Amino acid sequence: MVVIVLCIWLVFWTWTVQAQHCVWYGECGESTKVPGKKYNCNYTGPPIPLGQEGDELLTELCPGYNYGNQSLCCNVDQLRTLKGSLQLPLQFLSRCPACFFNLMNLFCELTCSPHQSQFMNATQFTPDPDPKQANKSNVVEVRYYIGQTFANAMYNACKDVQAPSSNVKALSLLCGKDAKDCNATNWIQYMFDINNGQTPFPIIPIFSDVPVSGFTPMNNKTYECTEGLEDGSGPCSCQDCAKACGPKPVPPPLPPPWTILGIDAMTVIMWISYVAFLLIFIGAVLGAWNKPRHPHNVRASRQFFSLYVDASCCETLGERFENAMRLLFSAWGSFCVQHPLLVILGSLIVVAASSSGLVYMRVTTDPVELWSSPSSQARQEKDYFDSHFGPFFRTEQLIITTPSNDTDMYTPYPAGLDVPFKAILKKDMLHQVLDLQLDIEGLVATYEGENVTLKDICLAPLAPYNNNCTILSVLNYFQNSHARLDHSIEDEFFVYADYHSHFLYCVSAPASLNDTTLLHDPCIGTFGGPVFPWIALGGYDGTNYNNATALVITFPVNNYLNDTVKRGKALAWEKEFIRFLKSYSNPNLTIAFSAERSIEDEIDRESNSDISTIVVSYIIMFVYISLALGHIQSLRRLLVDSKISLGIAGILIVLSSVASSLGIFSFAGVPLTLIVIEVIPFLVLAVGVDNIFIIVQTYQRDERMHNEELHQQIGRILGDVAPSMFLSSFSETLAFFLGALSNMPAVRTFSMFAGLAVFIDFLLQISCFVSLLGLDARRQEANRLDIICCVKLPEGQVEKTDGFLFRFFKKVYAPFILKEWVRPIVVSALLILPLPHTDSYVLEYFKNMSTYLHTGPPVYFVVEDGLNYSSLEGQNAVCGGVGCNNNSLVQQVYSASLISNYTTIAYTPSSWLDDYFDWVKPQSSCCRYYNNTGAFCNASVVNSSCVHCRPMTASGKQRPVGEEFMRFLPMFLSDNPNVKCGKGGHAAYSTAVDLYPDNKGVGATYFMTFHTILKESSDFIGALKMARVLADNITQSMDHRVFPYSVFYVFYEQYLTIAYDTALNLSVSLAAIFVVTTVLLGFELWSAVIVSITIAMILVNMFGVMWLWDISLNAVSLVNLVMSCGISVEFCSHIVRAFSISVKNNRVERAEEALAHMGSSVFSGITLTKFGGILILALSKSQIFQIFYFRMFLSIVLLGAAHGLIFLPVLLSYIGPSVNKAKVFASNTRYLGTERERLLNY
């Protein structure tokens, strides 16, 4: 029994002795695998006490460890090595105290534990080559037995920790692969792998919770990320610890579609409304047909019309107003015919003076100036961002694909499933793309006699220490080197590592300085930063980057706010960049590209590329007008009765009005836009030509009264038609000027120019054109030839006849359209109308961008000036680390990223404040200064005078506040990240913080993240909305203004209010037309209502056509809608006024007369004139012309003609205003013996 007890005691004593011995102690020879690193010395003796310096290092690295007498298996040299090796993990993981504590536990136990022999086994040794260390050997391999529970707990505490500067999780930078592919075992394996560039010899981790081969795995106590530490450190923040967040935010459910019986509710309601109206209308028509009809007594009617009785006060007032306008215009017309030279010369002087302002004309092609109002929220926020941080960098981008469909299969060594590589990732393709990239880098442009290269303008975040340009390209995984791309480790039997393995490693760990393959090549770009695969690759599925079908190469270029020279250099290089790529040809590569200047260039090109198309369009209209104005009586009198010269003069008057409008506003400093140049001539030509046809054709149909001279006849005719012209022109002018109230620059500018041009055109037509008409009438009466007026034909008998179009409208069309059975069909049919550049390299680029790009645009959450970052309250309101508010800015953006499908926020924001706190920690080697000068000392500098910024005390480990906060912040913002300090803020945050002069405080700052992939316009609009909602919530919780900014916001903000702006503009225009029509029709309210209803129907049908033709509602289409509102007045007002002054017996006859007299002029003046010109626009290569001009202009003309010449006469025949008795009496008296009196009796 005693022997048994003695044996047990001996075993226990032996085990205890073994448990106390070391595996190594001290450092010996230099590692042959990792230069600069040393092996530990083999030592199996007991632990050795540390000195004072070692105690301080142990306290710093392994806080809370208490080994009694501090007898350990490591010396000061090993602790220094440990500190240097763990700088990057410390900087990235110390923001979560529990995570970092567990990690340090792992390494402290490995390096120094007095119980090493319990869980470590040195398996390989080599003799130390140093003669002085002949009795020592190096430990070159060790097995480390780690508890699986410990490993899992350590991983779980660290898996959510963020790396703010990179918008990714810290493990993506520390695990050798993407964080989502990292787990407890492969993370520890990577940290102990000799291929990571930090571990001098293999440390083989063996995971188990039970003893293995006589070793008890290290299973020390761990802390969860939700727990605080014994030293007082708090739990990790929600951003770094998902468990601390509570339940994941749930986006609100999408509102269910509004349906009735499973059908869209609006469709059902509109059909029910239409059917109900149709039934009521048909019932009313049938009732009217069945009602007994009493024959009209024409003589009695004439007797009634000839009496000035029963006229109401309003009718009398209307007649007097109408008569006053008639007398005024008659007198003016007579004066213009009597004094043509005076009027023409005066008109020329006014036009010349107004047009002289064109010398000050400037055309705006800047998209921001075109689409964003200076007073809009997005524009003001852009200006704020630009003034505090500088404008967003310029982007030059290529999307490269290949027509080849080959797939290259890669077989990993020594084992693994084959990995397919798409054709664009084949080595020969990559070499060709690299050649192209290097050619672009070598481009030389010229600006004001000075050579400009990419290096002169590119974004180089580490300059002046590293002047390499930022090039976001997959070739930067190979440092843009053909040699690196060809680097491989192989023999005659196997390829152990090549570009395939390096690519697969780099897409999972783009910030790695040394891949874990046998190549040991870096992944980080030559510019000193990572190239994330979702930025440099496109067309892949999930995260299978090897399946990418496109390469995306981005060259960020510095932008300049007020430096025209530097901006000019950038523009010059971009021009050369575009020229080079337009001429580049490679049958194996398909390239879509864009430069920052491309959109502006394309807008500018739109004004030039389709000049021939526009010229042909206008020539067709000009020729038609010149020929159609003439009323040819016989072939002999062809050149006498033609009005080519008068037509050309009328066209020149239209163009003069446009030039005058442009000149006047150019005098005032208002810039032109391409919409003004392209649309206003079309608009004014429509309005002006219509008026020209009305004047000329009324004169041609008129008969001169007895003893009436020519000037009196034309004056009388102008008195008849000028009120109608004034009605339409003034309505349009007022509608356009009210449209200038819009906030959209393009709409506002168009409305101002158009309103003035239309009114000037009206003034020139009733003055200059009337004088020219008088001269042409004298020429015709004298039988002189048109154009060659010095040639005179012999006198001959001329029989006056009506024109073909007038006879067609009077004899055929008007009677047919107003037949009893036709009118109901017209009303029913028109009420069911629809309800609501291909050669451009930029267009090709946008198509590819939508197809291949896998990342959204960056978005900046800007904190405006005034927040006190030196106080804990100010810091807690913004930061995302330990101790920060749960509703801080960073935390709210992080929470939004968790439901990115709803919020469109893709990632956690980069936070300069959180990185600054990590950088300034005393445990880190980042923040140091020279104790003799106080200047900043970079972590890579080895100098004994460099000391830590803050002491290793309890207060030193707290966040800096007050003056201390500002003392070190400029150092942080100037520090370049390096191997020893990855938290330097120069590259990531140098522009993110706007410091006060002399670094007295922090002004405005931003926190950057990315939107999710945005492809459609609706995606961009939704992203803007959600970003603003999020910023408003942050503003409310911080009680300090925060706003979101992204480069596309200024362009898409218009869509947030486009529906309101459209409704407001069109409503105001309709209201103006209603008021003017009411007044100028002699206070006939019902006539104004009918005009407004018809125009509203045209606009509603325009919306329907836009839906059918997939034309989006934006600033361009809104301009066209405002224009259609104006042109619709031309289609409607003349016919309604003709109806209102008609003295026929009933509404049908009055509508027939109005349609016969005015319909032909409207049809020939607007419809036929525009139709030929519009059809030519279909040949345009420009997308804006094809979609917004051809389609919308064609719709405007066809819908206007359909409503003005078909629907409106029928509507007037049903519900037109009653006859104005006072006007009838005056009309009968005035037209006795004239052609009009003959028509009345027809």
Describe the structure.
The protein is an alpha+beta fold and 1242 residues long. Among the domains are: 35-244, no CATH class; 393-602, no CATH class. The strands form 11 sheets. Strands 1, 2, 5, 6 and 9 form a 5-stranded mixed sheet that branches. Strands 20-21-13-22 form a 4-stranded antiparallel sheet, sandwiched between helices. Strand 14 (407-410) and strand 15 (419-422) form a beta hairpin. Helix 12 (313-338) runs parallel beside helix 44 (1221-1230), helix 25 (644-667) packs antiparallel against helix 26 and helix 38 packs across helix 39. The chain crosses the membrane at residues 268-289, 327-353, 611-632, 644-668, 674-696, 717-741, 753-775, 1063-1083, 1089-1109, 1121-1141, 1161-1180, 1192-1215.
List keywords for this structure.
elongated; disordered N terminus; transmembrane helix; 45 helices; 1242 residues
Q: Would you tell me the overall average pLDDT? A: 82
Overall, the morphology is elongated
Distance between the termini: 147 Å
Structural class by secondary-structure content: alpha+beta
| Strand residues, percent | 5-15%
> Helical element count?
45
Helix content: 40-55%
Largest sheet: 5 strands, mixed
Low-confidence stretches: 1-18, 294-308, 833-839
Oligomer: single chain
Q: How many E-type strands? A: 29
Radius of gyration: 42 Å
Catalytic activity: cholesterol(in) = cholesterol(out)
InterPro entries: HMGCR/SNAP/NPC1-like_SSD (IPR053958), NPC1-like (IPR004765), NPC1_MLD (IPR053956), NPC1_N (IPR032190), SSD (IPR000731)
GO molecular function, one term: lipid transporter activity
Family: Belongs to the patched family.
